[in-house]
Amino acid sequence: MQTDTFSDIFPLFDAADSETLEWLLSVAVERDYPPGRAVLMEDAWGNAVYFIVSGWVKVRHIRGQDAITLAVLSQGDFFGEMAILDESPRSTDVVAYTPVRLLSIPAQRFIQFLFKDSQLHHRMLQLMVRRLRKANQRSQMRQEAPAVRIARVLVSLADTYGSATDTGVEICNLPDQDVADLSSVSEDESVKVMDKLREKGWIEVNEKEHTMTIVNTKQMQQLAGGR
Q: What domains are defined for the chain?
């Protein structure tokens, strides 16, 4: 991958110089994963950071026989950084929703890269703090109605990873249980709300392409704001 393409896809690196990026990409490994494949297994020791070139993945935690979806990530994002920074086993696993292409960078090389570029080190910390803030916001919104919680999740995914189309903003079509996990609602509540959103024409689902389009973005944003 060319350095300019890499920095375009991953805003984290848009201020890094080309020489540094070439050094980083020289040790990166590109891999493709089919839908349903586990990219990382829970409790595996962190030996790399993974950057999403294309596709969608979910981050989940296994509790007994249940898998709880914690986050959904797509192009331009990354994962695996926490396990290498605190040198401990991963607390989650990552599974591909769609065909996914990833770049993996060995842990030690990535740490070297962070300390070579103080600006990048600062930006990485900012992104990690932003993720923690989002997690806190999720825990705080449990007092909201299920429809508001679900709208916030969908709007957030659209704002962060969505692709503009002629009909609206396209994201991955998430299973009802994953929507429920991300919104902290029951699966029954998730099914009812998603069905209602489809009936209203605010979202459209393409089962064949595994996509969801937020058609009425204004109404969805208003719902997400609790209005």
A: 3-139 (2.60.120.10), 144-224 (1.10.10.10)
